[in-house]
Amino acid sequence: MDQPGLDPAEHGRALEALRRINLLSAGARALWPRIRAFARSRSGPTRLLDAPCGGGDFAVRIARKARREGVALEVFGCDVSEYAVEYATEHARRSGVSARFFRRDVLAEPFPEGFDVLTCSLFLHHLDEPDAVGLLGAMKRAGGLLLVDDLERGRLGWLLAVAGTRLLSRSAVARVDGPRSVEGAFTRGEARALAEAAGWERPRTVARFPCRFLLTEGR
After folding, report:
1. What does the pLDDT look like over 149-195, one tens digit per residue?
2. First CA to last CA across the chain, in angstroms?
3. What pTM did the predictor assign?
4. Contact call for residues 202 and 195 (beta carbons, < 8 A)
5. Which of 16, 31, 57, 75 is most deeply packed, by most CB within 10 A?
6. Contact 117/49 with Cβ under 8 angstroms?
7. Helix residue spans in 71-144 (DSSP H)
8. What whole-number distance in Å separates Cα of residue 66 and Cα of residue 73?
């Protein structure tokens, strides 16, 4: 899905497939209690950035929850793909939320500053170890509450990815990308080691269904 020159129509079908799959995995629901508690502990609006944001699924769901519960949260997302940014912007518009999106390559450009919460949802597994350490280090230097939600490598997760992409999507890209993503994912122990190498303070992982984990700082 990340390959340059991917046909926009096929890219759109793949993003739509991910939207349906991510809805079942409940990533926003898993992270929301931490984000809500952090935002309510502060005075004034809290600024959240999801990077990279892909089609904006996570950011839009968080923005909906904040609006519904009256939490003063400004939601942003960034991605290297101009198409993904346009797709996410339209998704937010159709959803009636004010989440905003912009283009940024967080692996090659300075990480955006001025945010209180940094989330990375279902992206870490796309990276090799040096790039993963680089991304986590950039998040740490940018500061704030750090939350990484990702797949965990394992046989059951692979089987669920194969079944889920076939049941919920007709996208050929998604059907290839899903199982490969699990194959390339890190275990919880590996994710903690990467975060330690990136300078995180006492990183910890929390397992969550289905075959995923949440990586946070243990401060």
Report:
1. 998 887 665 455 555 555 555 555 555 565 567 667 899 999 999 99
2. 35
3. 0.81
4. no
5. 75
6. yes
7. 82-95, 129-142
8. 6
